[in-house]
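The data layer described in this paper is built around a simple, fixed record for each protein. Such a record has a labelled line for the sequence and another for the backbone structure tokens. For reference, a complete record is included directly beneath this paragraph.
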Amino acid sequence: MGANLISFRPASPRDANALGAIHDAAWRSTYQGIIPHLHLERMIARRGPRWWQQQIERGANVTLLMFDDVPQGYATWGAARGTWPWEAGEIFELYVNPAFQGVGLGTRLFATAKDALKRQGLKRLVVWALKDNESACAFYGGLGGSIVAATPERYGDVSLTRVAFAWGVNVKSSRA
């Protein structure tokens, strides 16, 4: 892949349709068989183009991965949610269109979001993933993240575990 085909840029409200489509495809590919079907369908339905437009208009940090000037992935990021013993940034979501996965674009999108957080003075980073999402856990572990916390997350009668990966912290002294 030529470097001139790949770029990153902030999302604008006009990208809402593309974001909704990427979210739909990536979530179906990623979470079918992990999150119970009805809950997954409801979660996807809530995150359509109108939702994305509103988030961007409210100032959400959304970075697009562009391939040949067409959005093929996104990352959302900002100050870390929750209580941590250190100030950190968080990548809330990072998804790549399934047709573009496995070729290093997610790694480049991760680096772009991480750099944006560093420019805001947030040198430590947290990312949450469902433990049963083995590909995400392998991805974040492969990028040097260490698991620093775990918490249950309920989907109706099903309880899944979310794990927090962190970068830039002393894992032995970290507590969430």
Summary: The chain is about 35% helix and 30% strand. Confidence is low (pLDDT under 50) at residues 172-176. The two ends are 40 Å apart (CA to CA).
